[in-house]
Design a protein that fits this description.
The chain is mainly α and 74 residues long. The chain has helices at 11-25, 32-39, 45-73. It has a domain at 29-73. InterPro entries: DHC, Dynein_C.
Length: 74
């Protein structure tokens, strides 16, 4: 990577660009309430596991988003 003095981008700008790119590609959280409503009458053990995993996925997406936003502020 080139230094700022030689015409390249700075380390901070590079990190900001990468973080912005990841944020653009980050999926939105699932609306688990809507899925629960659809599965309400036929909720199977597999459906319960699906909902649990969707909740975990949502937490992960939220954590990644907050971390990238914090990284971009610095």
């Amino acid at each position: 990577m080139e230094s700022e003095a030689s015409g390249g981008i700075s380390r901070d700008d590079f990190i900001d660009n990468v973080a912005a790119g990841i944020l653009e590609k980050l999926p939105v959280a699932f609306e688990t309430w809507r899925i629960k409503k659809q599965l309400q009458m036929s909720l199977t053990p597999t459906g319960v596991v699906l909902l649990q995993e969707l909740d975990r996925f949502n937490l992960l997406v939220i954590r990644i988003k907050k971390t990238l936003e914090l990284l971009r502020k610095n």
